[in-house]
Amino acid sequence: MGIGHTRWATHGKPSEENAHPHANASGTLMLVHNGIIENYQTLRHQLAARGYTFSSETDTEVVAHLIDAEYDGDLVQAVKRALRKVSGTFGLVVMHARHPEQLVAARRGSPMVLGVGNGEMLVASDVAAFLRLTDKVVYLEDDDVVSITRQEFVIDTLADERVERQAQQIEWQPDAVELNGYPHYMLKEIFEQPEAITNALRGRLLPGEGIANLGGLRSVLDRLKEAHHLVIVSCGTSYYAGLYGRYVFEKLTDLIVEVEVASEMRYRKTNIRPGSVVLAISQSGETADTIAAMREAGRKGALLLGLVNVVGSTISRITEAGVYNHAGPEIGVASTKIFTSQCCILVMMALLLGRCKHLSITDGMEIVAGLERLPEQIAAVLKQADYIRTIAEAYARYRNFLFIGRKYNYPIALEGALKLKEISYVHAEGCAAGEMKHGFIAMIDENFPTVCLATKDTTYEKTLSNMLEIKSRNGKIIAVATEGDEEIAHIADHVIYTPPNLDFLQPIPAAVALQLFAYYSAVARGCEIDQPRNLAKSVTVE
Ligand code: F6R
What we know:
Helix 7 (236-252) runs parallel beside helix 11 (337-356), helix 13 packs across helix 16 (507-524) and helix 14 (409-424) packs parallel to helix 16 (507-524). Helix 14 links the parallel strand 19 and strand 20 (427-432). The chain has 542 residues and is α/β, with parallel strands linked by helices. The radius of gyration is 25 Å and the shape is globular. The chain is built from 16 helices and 23 strands. Helix content is 35%, strand content 20%. It folds into three domains: 22-170, Glutamine Phosphoribosylpyrophosphate, subunit 1, domain 1; 175-383, Glucose-6-phosphate isomerase like protein, domain 1 (Rossmann fold, 3-Layer(aba) Sandwich), CATH 3.40.50.10490; 386-542, Glucose-6-phosphate isomerase like protein, domain 1 (Rossmann fold), CATH 3.40.50. The strands form five sheets. It has a seven-stranded antiparallel β-sheet, with helices on one face. The chain has a five-stranded parallel β-sheet with strand order 15-14-16-17-18, with helices on both faces. It has a five-stranded parallel β-sheet with strand order 20-19-21-22-23, sandwiched between helices. It binds fructose -6-phosphate. Fructose -6-phosphate (F6R) binds next to helix 7 and helix 14.
């Protein structure tokens, strides 16, 4: 029996004292905690007045002492009484020397799953943590308190009611969490993209009808057909997928589309009202800001949808309908295969709604054919990995990068910059190519290279002009362009070619080229790849 927690400090500096597990004074009770105890100062003062002393600056240690103060021989009851005094979020696991065969776990706001193994029980904040050991999972709900022994588990609510939760079988294969010969999960996941896209599309396209068939939306399709207002809400890479989705929804449907950063939307007065559709995009399905924004939207009467990778995650449970990525676990902190999978699914959602409205069958058939070409087109980009590595190595000494793109390529530019900065710690900014002359171009000189997304679409000529502006300021250019475009090679210092497709589908393989560029840049700089500093895979706190 054991507990552990890998984390970055939210309270106090990262030090041994502040590291988990935290204990009561005698060391008989130990716990690990994910989340934030908001009233920890008040609790700390109350406990200090009763003679408790603290050896760390953390909010978590307060809970260890609080449970100790409530303990009278029954660990489950002590945990419940203590947690009733706590405000904030927690996924926590407690062990006690006098209960050597028992763990007690509880959650509110932070994810927690129970794995039912063969003669063993496992509890974690993410199923990927124990996928090697079991595929039977119980998804715990907020305010569940579970008492675990080797053979069984019993779940009560904090209000002392017994609840039954069934174990579910998860589809992910155990080897999905192995490196399988790759040096990093990020590289493995980049190379898994042809398969991830195939899985996203599988059984969901009707080529003869030129339409998508999304089973997860069937129950709400009539309401979707009547909707006029779509709000997409997400964070980070999922937000950039949402930005890409807006362009595609605007092209294929008549919806008014807004895209919101979840941490901003949750505190804003919005236009969301009954009849609005709010779509959360989230790999983990556990991002605290996205969950909070969705709860707000639900309060305003919106239809809540999810585009989520982790089956059974909180967002999949608080939304009325949605679509899963079916992309398998993503372990590298930098999101790669899920981004392109999200983009493809957004195209399918827009296609479905567009075809239910004015979009013609011939247009629909063309889009289906374009989507079906994506796995092999991504594979064609992956074949250029060595070439992209040489470019990344050639630019490894630069400390600043600009990423530009227009229209469908604009979100890809933002995502390319995010990938580079988060794993290689160099300064990278994405901007709409047309915005360059409104400020960004001031930074350009021979030490400030630009990555230009310049695949062939209606804005291509304009992007080319932007590239000339950069050249005339001695800026170096790495271009991502459509195969066969020879003109661009006269302007750019390096060109990565991606296969031709419909204008709004070409950015998806282009995104893969930028993922490889970021990956090899970080390797060339000797950076930690899968766990970049200060970042967590699931951001379960505000
Ligand atoms: C960047 C990255 C993050 C996440 C963001 C949202 O590579 O992975 O920006 O995209 O934290 O996470 P999810 O999609 O789980 O809601």
